[in-house]
Amino acid sequence: MIQRIVALGNGMLSLFAHGGPVMWAILAVSVGAATVAIERAIFFARLRGDRRTGDAFRVACASGDFARAETACAGFRGPAGGALREALAARGWGLPAVEDAFNSELERARESLERHLGGLSVAARGAPLLGLLGTVTGMMRAFMRVEAAGGEVEVAALAGGIWEALLTTAFGLVVAVPALFAWHYFRAAAEWYLRMMRDAGERLVASSRKAGDAP
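Now predict its structure.
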């Protein structure tokens, strides 16, 4: 098993070395995309329990128990807790203040939830372009060899040069496809969390209006 892993690693290193200098740029993009994906995966994994906390918050608001709703805010592990706590604190200033406080915190939460996702988008779009650039420059080098040889070059040598050039396209796609899926997944996770926050905020506003908080 270990020998197979070592052989696979050596094979990947050999392919990488044959891809030319553009491979280093693709490697840098892949490292950046992997770093963002891991960080966001850990971030959203911590927020899974907020679904139940959000349900508890809405139930408390529906029953008019704002003290229990404020206690529920401590159970959030994401930005919903701070946003809803600020909205609850603004109840003494009237319903418009509750809405303004929550909407302001909602925008801050969006920034937190979508942090670094632009990097994944850039990786998904940029890696294939880098691969294409490597292919073009590799083909240019291959045909420069043909010209230098006066047009008399073995087909095997030309095919080898083209094969090396196509490696960058392959590696670019290997980086881009996971980055694209990761970007869509984390965007969907962020939108779900924001919907959960909006539902909780709307329940708070409706309950505050029913309790007579409107001026």
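The two ends are 72 Å apart (CA to CA).
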